[in-house]
DNA sequence: TTGACATATAACCGATTGGATATGTAATCT
DNA sequence: AGATTACATATCCAATCGGTTATATGTCAA
């Protein structure tokens, strides 16, 4: 009984979503709800073990969870961990969605929250 | 006419921000404005060439720009490319800013779109 | 012009990554 | 029980990564 049960080694969310396959998996789980591994593999041209490895990484990052039903493993999105990405990238928001003229003051104030 | 500004080979923004050093560089440029390389190196315990390499990657990803002044290269944030990350991660927004109790139905319905 | 400074690039290296194939394990079906 | 299905894990491999030191290039200052 060595195995660390859930004890997340916090495997960086940013690098986890750095991979396009993993992003696609996350998006699909978010849009279509829980899916088993075979269903998740299907749209890709890569092997099942490769997808299982991605799912493992996603699980370790806390971005998905899974439970068994019969011989299926049903994976679901666990999006809380993505919030930190949202928060980080929000720091740059003012650079793209506003003309920063007299607005600068307002933004500086918000930045202090 | 669209004209790719610097002929970006689009070296994936997601993997670019996967590195913590690069995220720190971006954040600092955003918060403190343009900086030369020496200034950017200073807070880190890694070598100047290592930072220059990161800056190269950031430039290739279109996330920073630089211009010369004397013997200095002044780097500035170019945050537009981060918007796609913001947009992507926004897909998961509903998972963290809503209590999904009786809301589940509503969400399931939306998922079918 | 010579030397110091600012920065980029080159060459190299060990660690990690993302894939493949092969095998293990548990649940279901006949 | 035996075969099949669904998935995870093990092992291996080439490519990429992030760092290093060494070197090249261009600019300023004396």
Gist of the model:
2 copies of one chain form a homodimer. Chain A has 113 residues and is of the alpha+beta class.
Topology:
Two copies of one chain form a homodimer.
Chain A (H helix, E strand, L loop, with lengths): L12 H4 L3 H13 L2 E2 H5 L6 H13 L3 E6 L2 E6 L5 H8 L3 H4 L6 H8 L2
Antiparallel strand pairs in A: 1-3, 2-3
The structure holds a DNA duplex (30 and 30 nucleotides).
Helix and strand sequence of chain A: HHEHHEEHHH
Regarding quaternary structure, what we see is: homodimer
CATH superfamily label of chain A: Winged helix-like DNA-binding domain superfamily/Winged helix DNA-binding domain
> What characterizes the major β-sheet of chain A?
3 strands, antiparallel
Architecture of chain A in CATH? Orthogonal Bundle
What does this structure look like?
Two copies of one chain form a homodimer. With 113 residues, chain A is α+β, with helices and mostly antiparallel strands. Chain A has a single domain (13-111), classed as Arc Repressor Mutant, subunit A (Orthogonal Bundle). Helices cover 49% and strands 12% of the residues of chain A. Chain A contains seven helices and three strands. Chain A has a three-stranded antiparallel β-sheet. In chain A, a hairpin with a 2-residue loop joins β2 (64-69) and β3. Chain A is elongated, with a radius of gyration of 18 Å. Chain A binds a DNA duplex (30 and 30 nucleotides) through residues 19, 21, 36-38, 46-50, 52-56, 68, 70-73.
């Amino acid at each position: 009984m060595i195995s660390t049960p859930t004890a997340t080694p916090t495997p960086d969310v940013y690098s986890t979503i750095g991979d396009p396959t993993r992003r696609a998996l996350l998006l699909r789980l978010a849009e279509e709800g829980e899916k088993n591994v075979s269903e998740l593999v299907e749209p890709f041209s890569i092997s099942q073990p490769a997808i299982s490895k991605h799912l493992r990484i996603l699980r370790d990052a806390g971005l998905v969870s899974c439970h068994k039903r019969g011989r299926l493993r049903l994976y679901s999105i666990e999006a809380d961990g993505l919030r930190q990405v949202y928060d980080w990238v929000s720091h740059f928001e003012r650079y793209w969605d506003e003309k920063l003229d007299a607005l600068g003051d307002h933004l500086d104030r918000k930045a202090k929250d």
